Amino acid sequence: MKITFLCKGTRGDARPLLALAKQWRRSKPAWQVTLACTFSVSCTLSQEIGNDIEVVKLPDQPAQQMSSEELTKLLRAEVECCLAASHDTSIIVFNLFTLEGWFIANHLSIPCVAASPFLLNRAPPDRFYKELQAVQPEIFDSLKHASPGQVSMAEVDHWMWRLFLDDLGDACASVGLQNVPFLKDTQVLLPSPTPLLYGISPSLLRQQAFWPDSVRVCGCWEMTSPDPQLVPNKELVTLVESMSSPLIFIGFGSMETLYRQVIDWKKTVTDINSALAACNAFALWQCYTDEVRQVFKDLSPGRICHWKGSFPHCWLFQHCVGVVHHGGIGTTTSALRAGLPAVVCPFQSEQHYWAEQLSWLGVGVQCPSIKTASINDYLRSFKTILSTPLSDAAKQLQLKIQNEDGIKIALSVIEQQLKK
Fold this sequence. Notes:
Distance between the termini: 16 Å
Mean pLDDT: 90
CATH class of the largest domain: Alpha Beta
Largest sheet: 7 strands, parallel
CATH architecture of the largest domain: 3-Layer(aba) Sandwich
Helix content: 40-55%
Strand order of the largest sheet: 3-2-1-4-5-8-9
Radius of gyration: 22 Å
Shape: globular
């Protein structure tokens, strides 16, 4: 038996599905577990992936802007790799950057589950339903009058409208997959709804009454205890133990790479260092790019130490009093699970939502964009997370999150799909 996890995107996008894959492998050692992710992510997460999970490496998207022809070739290559990864599999779990997983499962006549570590807060374009009715009137009418137990407009409105995007359909058709959802030859066939699972704590995101029943908030998907294979680097341990307190973690994950040419990192590091000095705090900055590492070499700021590469957050956060990050759900959850308040500097999309949520819950501060933030912005934010009220609130929320088992809930839904 085999289960395949398909997850394009960044490290933060892949880690939650990796946590599901690892737990499935532990609980079902006889199963083959395959993880398809980009080449760069597979390299970054190689230690976490270990040797008991088969990895299929998807092509990376180049940093420079691609022509439409180049993008078409990339999309086709991605679908081909995902199709190869799904050979002889019994079920597919895909994230919402890898929607071809739905078409592949349909082609293979096997069940599938959609899994998202972030909230979908983007509605279909205004023209979507009008175009669907004009181009595929039978599908439109069938969805509108779907019977109980069939996929309906509710699922399409929440997330499945993305399956109708032209570039995705064209890429699927180019490798012989059906490119129009719910259509076989010329006949409309509405299947049972595909479950969409949110790997988010219900303490952060409540199940909404207007969502379809197939959408479920499970709880976060994170390995709750340090993996024995993930031993912190000895040099890092020595560095952390030598640093003064209070210690704050700073890490912007993949945003540092995506925005390496956009942000004035020299100004950012200098301003943060000055703010730390003003409130007598220190920081460990997790670096991913040469641009940021060069800033530290040139400036040698006295309040910040930097470290290149990955390490287990669950280990490091035991030594910290707060976290400064971009608002990715992975770092957000890791910080809350550790009982740490956060300063969130959002860059894009759902990161602004999580910054607002943490502020509303009283466990975080929303800082202005790094492009515009000043020394005073950082100073106010650092002083706030170092204060007792935010620290106490984060500890209280930690107790709630620690009692959740999002991975167990998600895997139980996957098993239910297998039985169907």
